[in-house]
Amino acid sequence: MTTIDPHRPAPSHADNETLLGRADLNDLEAILAITNTDVDEVTHAVKDNADAIFTWDYSLSRPALRKLYEKAKTGQWNGSTDLDWNTEVDIEKVVSGDQVAIAAGLDPTHYDDTVLKHWGQKEWLDYGIQNRRWTLSQFLHGEQGALLCTAKITETVPWYDAKLYAATQVVDEARHVEVFGRYIDEKMGGAYQVNAHLRMLLDDIVADSRWDMTYLGMQVMVEGLALAAFGFMHQLTEEPLLKKLLRYVMSDEARHVAFGVLSLKEVYDQMTDAEMAERQEFAYEAAVRMRDRFMSQEVWERMGVNPRDVLPIVLKDPTRDLFQQMLFSKIVPNCKKLGLLDRNDQWLRRRFEEMGVIQFEDWEDTGSEYAAFELGSEMPAAIPGG
To answer: How many domains does the chain have?
Structure first.
């Protein structure tokens, strides 16, 4: 294990301009400047800069990963037969019943002094439907990103036990892409294109040559946020097909995040401060990219509203702020478990304080919590008191 010298100066970190392309974390113009330039794009190529690693050591040297692998084998489900696709979904009734403004992260009363002041119940309901389509679409695209990344992890991770588990996750992710894609197509009327901020993050994760960065970007950051977002929607919706779909997906998702935490803990405990600084920066950039995508600028544009006219108010909406903070309820404790928060003079802790999400640091990490999400268990509430 690497010995850390407490008297050694901490490595200097890149600034926001270098990491994010903007100096101010909340620079709205810079955020909205990132858009999809080809709205008709069907295929998207990213160069995968990684070596495929064989290992001839077949010893079972990591019991925690082997336990996870055994749970994955017994936790399989079939999206075609375990979900009732004959369920009728009246999307207007569903979104209205799910309390559209709350589920979308917005409180209509905050928008009386904006271009939305003439919106009535119909417009807010339409916004809620579009926001649901957009949100589920980003879930779908993120799951395809997880499919590719886990296939890459199977190739690149040097440990036998990790390769075995990663192979089960490839199957899980294929199932997730299948069920989200089918739900959006059959029940929601079609998908939105991938959000530009999400696509940038997925590109960065796939393109990085270091196997632990694939783990960190996908297993801990993207999957961690997805687990929280799925839990939030599962708790809010009363639509039975979507509720069951999310419950099944979350039973897999918790294992996936645990896979990242259990694997990286061993690696990060041995890294130098300089190596950890790179991981801290990557985690911060990933967190900001995911936060930026939840501005859902494509929905506002679909509704005929210039995002610049409403997003300054949206960013100050306390209802949305709570929703956004809750999305990081899995990421922050997992970063703490991995030692990312406090290495190098607490650099990442200060970034999460600036983002307003540090309050989740003492919540249970997914490496310990994942069994609670197994099918048949009483799942933890996504919203405290919910």
So the answer is: 1
